Amino acid sequence: VSGVQSPLPLLHNAVSIMTPFLLAAIGGLFTELAGMLNIALEGLILVGSFFAVVFAGLTGSLLAGVLLGVAATLLVALLFGAASLYLEANVFITGLATNLLASGLTAVLALRLFGNKGVLRFALPGLPVLSLQGIPALRRIPVLGDLLLGHNVLVYVSWLVLALAALLIHRTPFGLRLRGAGLGRETLSSLGLKPKRYQLAAILISGLTCGLAGAALTLRLGAFVPNISGGRGWIALVVIYLGNKTPAGILAAALLFGLAESLANYAQGATNVPAELILAFPYLLTVVAMTLYSIWRFYRGRA
Amino acid sequence: VRRPRTLAELSAGTASLLLTLGAALLSAVLLILLLSRAPLTAIRYFFLGPFGSRYALGSLLSGAVPLVLTGLGMAVAFRSSVFNLGGEGQLYAGALSATVVMLALPGQSGYVGGAAALAVAVVTGAALAGLSGFLRMRWGTDELISSFLISAAVLRVVSFLITGPLSDPASNLQATRPIPAQYWLSGIFPPSRLSTSALFALVAAGLVFFLLYYTRTGYEMRMCGLNREFARYGGIDVSAYLLTPMLLSGALHGLAGGLSIMGTYHVAVKEFSAGLGWNGIAVALIAGSHPLAVLPAALFLAYIEAGAREAMLHSDVSLEIAAIVQAVIFFLVTARALARALRPRGVEARPGRGA
Q1: Residues A77-116: pLDDT tens digits?
Q2: SS3 A130
Q3: Can you give the pLDDT at residue B93?
């Protein structure tokens, strides 16, 4: 191990690594605004990550992998939504069901299709990197230009999704009604609207973004690792709170966790800290951040 | 975060419960038909395997022991309308702390050292869950998310300790040294591993039943579970009942961990606890959070696990079908629409719980 690393590669990495957190948190923001704590994010990411890389491997096309991975995630989200809204089951318990289904289904299918419950490797080209070098204006901005350029295409897709989500939530009747559904079902019912439809839409949107988040995890590696979602869905829930339930806030909070993971990756390579302890770090950081946030809210509420 | 007004009676009535359990067994059959190349053999082992030998039956029963304890832990939390999603970490940490105590007391008598080990396991579990309860009580931190996150971190730290500083160099398992033989709970159904830890589980079910229905604390916990606002108007210190049920829930998980080591494994093996936290939730939901109903519910879930294990051993089915079957239970067990559809005509629904 030689010398101190410049912080720039760490930050550049963090911008890339935050993508799954950001995408899952965007989807979770929709369900949160619609009045549901969506603990199924974790399982939905796992489903997306599995099917994206498996379909990409089977078809040889990254795009087909992303699309079919998202489609599979939408199906599972539909199941989650139907059980929660139309069978009127408790949303935490159906969320647990979704997470269990995801880890069981991916393990069973991996064994059945590939005879292997461990790491599944696929011969895939890497995700295309958008250099965006053609935009000289961007390149000329010091530091920021370096941070924003040269990521894979799904990183930029996630920013596009964030912008679309912000528009949808704050600038359309759909967004207004969605937030209305979150205030209480009576609010929308009194307007002659069906609140469950808006809640189902929110769950499906979370399926879409978690599918993309999963694809971002496995297509970058060209491999599926059991339980590769690794708590990102849970962390995304905390990202939503830390980001004060706004798209801009979520971006900032996701970057914080991207940076933490980037640092953890660096520590794993550069130090002798055992892997298990490094794996515990994101959870500890998240619970500390969450506690500080609730303390801040507690005292602000009193003042 | 909006939560249901009451989590106390999450599961939705006998008819829909039977339908849920039936659907779970049916899904096991369907999964095997889809996945197995020899489905009839696999189905036979799934359903009959657990009764096929003394050993298999004893394994089913001994598998139910931790499920009774974790199920009781979750039932206590649900009855008071708090969520403990950290059961697995509490159990795993309880198991390791008990193991460390027993390894540190090689010359102690089995009763004294064993009691000390179980006490430490109980305190460890209670402290971990209690931390989430305390944060909720003091600053309103969501205990559902914090208990999961703390447990997730603890799982990794305990795994590190088991495979690192506390590992047994002489063993090729990823495990600690075995506990001294005087701490092994005696087997009661040889050759299986069913041990006297089953008696602890039965006594615990009785004690939790007594606590909830025959003591003031239990009454106040249940009142908070039914309606926190109403309980507050009734003069109950409701904030204390965010902490107490978490402490109890964690204590029962820690006890389950300590007993698993003393009764079944005799060493702390890496990740032996995988899934036990979620199973406890399934048991409590099937039991409608009633401490005595936890016993048959734990047996049912242990049967599914044992069936999946038998099917895996004797055919080409993988163990994870148990997770999918459990997911089916979770999807249906709290479904109110299902309960309403199955309720006899003329019977009014109970006042609503938010979704």
Answers
A1: 999 999 999 999 999 999 999 999 999 999 999 998 998 8
A2: strand
A3: 97
At B238, is the secondary structure helix, strand, or coil?
coil
Q: Would you call B3 an interface residue with chain A, using a CB distance cutoff of 8 Å? A: yes
Burial A116-149 (b: 16+ CB within 10 A, else e): eeeebebebeebeebeeeeeeeeeeeeeebebbb
Q: Quick check: A283 and B150 CB within 8 A?
A: yes
Contacts of B337 in chain A (CB under 8 A): 86-88
Residues forming a β-bridge with B237: none
B131 at A interface, C-beta within 8 A? no
B83/A contact by beta carbon, under 8 A: yes
Asked if A294 is an interface residue toward chain B (Cβ–Cβ < 8 A), one would say yes
Q: How far apart are CA A31 and CA A21, in angstroms?
A: 15
* Alpha-helix residue ranges (DSSP H) falling in A118-231: 136-140, 144-148, 153-171, 173-183, 185-189, 195-221
Mean pLDDT computed over A20-32:
97
SS3 content of chain B, % helix, strand, coil (to 5): 70, 0, 30
Q: Chain B residue closest to A199 (CA)?
A: B355
Question: Taking CB atoms and an 8 Å cutoff, what residues of chain A touch B332?
Answer: 83, 87, 89
For B337, the closest of A87, A94, A104 (CB atoms) is A87
Q: Tally A–B CB contacts below 8 A.
A: 153
Say what the ipTM of the complex is: 0.90
A11 touches chain B (CB under 8 A): no
- For residue B139, the SS3 value is helix
Sequence-distant (≥ 6) Cβ neighbours of residue A182 within 8 angstroms: A32, A33, A34, A35, B2
Q: Which of A91, A287, A288, A295 to mutate to test the interface with B (most CBs of B within 10 A)?
A: A287
At A126-166, the pLDDT tens digits run 888 876 666 666 666 777 777 788 888 999 999 999 999 99
Q: Please tell me which residue, A264 or B86, carries the higher pLDDT value.
A: B86
For residue range B245-292, list pLDDT tens digits in order: 999 999 999 999 999 999 999 999 999 988 888 899 999 999 989 999
Answer positive or negative: Cα dihedral of A97, A101, B277, A224: negative
Model pTM score: 0.91
Query: Which of B305, B314, B341, B293 is CA-nearest to residue B78?
Result: B293
When CB atoms are compared, the residue of B4, B145, B335 closest to A238 is: B145
Instruction: Tell me the C-alpha distance between B46 and A163, whole Å.
Output: 50
